[in-house]
């Protein structure tokens, strides 16, 4: 199991995000060529735009089916509504229940964090609907990287972001890592089933089940290839991204693959600087591709670590209990 280094990050990943251009030093990665302090690297979206190669549209053989309606990002359940809060009585009763029965809140919390917050983070990165403005992240994939605007492409982007989160989840204590990963996978596939039925208008359960099996196979394959790449080198990583996200397109612009690789490395760097407890409480958000992750110093790490400890020391309610580390 991969174990991430000890460190943390303050309230959100924004601390590591800055202007579209900063000094960047990495070893054993695609960013090796920027070793000198005077060298700089662009944000992933800017990096991709530097290519001057002509765009060759990928032949998908068939015309992708587009959404005929729009489902909510999450569900219609009130619990997932923005700003939802329990009533005063429900809060008091819930805290008492947790205290009396000694509920393991880290397992309980995995549902709301991985199955809701992190699910939404994964889903919205490549989400788009016809005749609606795209988010900046969606523009990165469909306009800058020129990926096909299809449902299957959205799935591949979602699975990539699932894997990025799963790397950090697997660094949690085993029983919690398993819960977080399972909650996220279950929610992703339940959402895919609903979207195929409601948004794409597929009425055949047999077709939906067949597609879900295909997506599950793709998930297993992509996880294995990304895991291999993570412990290998950036050539292997670029190859895995090309096969999965770029659909093995022989006409792909290698500058685009490089940009996506820089984006993934940036997310992993931020996750590497988060403590178990911060991540377990849902504090991570993906850095947009038009921003650059700025490496931090040891003294900055120590400052953030202290702020995190002070914050969680104030969280004393039974429902806020956690055994997840604030040091790693």
TrEMBL record:
Report the domain of life of the source organism. Eukaryota
Molecular function in Gene Ontology: mRNA binding; ribosome binding
**Which part of the chain is the Ubiquinol-cytochrome c chaperone domain?**
143-286
List, alphabetically, the InterPro entries matched. Answer: Ubiq_cyt_c_chap, Ubiqinol_cyt_c_chaperone_CPB3
* Biological processes, Gene Ontology terms: mitochondrial respiratory chain complex III assembly; positive regulation of mitochondrial translation; protein stabilization
Gene Ontology CC: Cbp3p-Cbp6 complex; mitochondrial membrane; mitochondrial ribosome
Q: Which family does it belong to?
A: Belongs to the CBP3 family.
What protein name applies here? Ubiquinol-cytochrome c chaperone domain-containing protein
């Amino acid at each position: 199991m991969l174990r991430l280094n000890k460190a943390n990050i303050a309230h959100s990943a924004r601390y590591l995000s800055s202007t579209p251009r900063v000094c960047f030093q990495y070893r054993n990665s695609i960013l090796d060529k920027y070793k000198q302090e005077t060298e700089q690297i662009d944000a992933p979206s800017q990096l991709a735009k530097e290519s001057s190669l002509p765009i060759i549209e990928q032949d998908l053989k068939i015309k992708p089916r587009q959404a005929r309606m729009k489902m909510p990002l999450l569900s219609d359940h009130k619990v997932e509504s923005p700003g939802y809060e329990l009533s005063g009585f429900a809060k008091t009763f819930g805290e008492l229940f947790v205290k009396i029965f000694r509920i393991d809140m880290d397992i309980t919390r995995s549902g709301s964090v991985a199955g809701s917050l992190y699910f939404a983070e994964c889903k919205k990165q490549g989400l788009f609907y016809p005749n609606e403005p795209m988010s900046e992240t969606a523009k990165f994939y469909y306009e800058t990287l020129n990926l096909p605007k299809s449902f299957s492409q959205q799935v591949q982007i979602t699975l990539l972001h699932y894997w990025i989160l799963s790397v950090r989840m697997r660094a949690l204590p085993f029983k919690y890592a398993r819960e977080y990963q399972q909650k996220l996978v279950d929610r992703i596939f339940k959402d895919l089933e609903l979207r195929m039925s409601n948004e794409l208008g597929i009425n055949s359960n047999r077709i939906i089940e067949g597609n879900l099996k295909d997506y599950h196979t793709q998930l297993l394959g992509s996880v294995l290839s990304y895991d291999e790449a993570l412990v290998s080198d950036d050539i292997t990583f670029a190859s895995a991204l090309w096969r999965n996200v770029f659909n093995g397109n022989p006409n792909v612009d290698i500058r685009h693959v490089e940009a996506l690789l820089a984006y993934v490395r940036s997310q992993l760097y931020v996750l590497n600087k988060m403590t178990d407890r911060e991540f377990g409480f849902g504090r991570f958000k993906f850095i947009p591709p038009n921003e650059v992750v700025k490496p931090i110093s040891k003294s900055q790490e120590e400052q953030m670590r202290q702020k995190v400890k002070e914050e969680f020391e104030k969280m004393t309610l039974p429902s806020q209990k956690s055994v997840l580390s604030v040091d790693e």
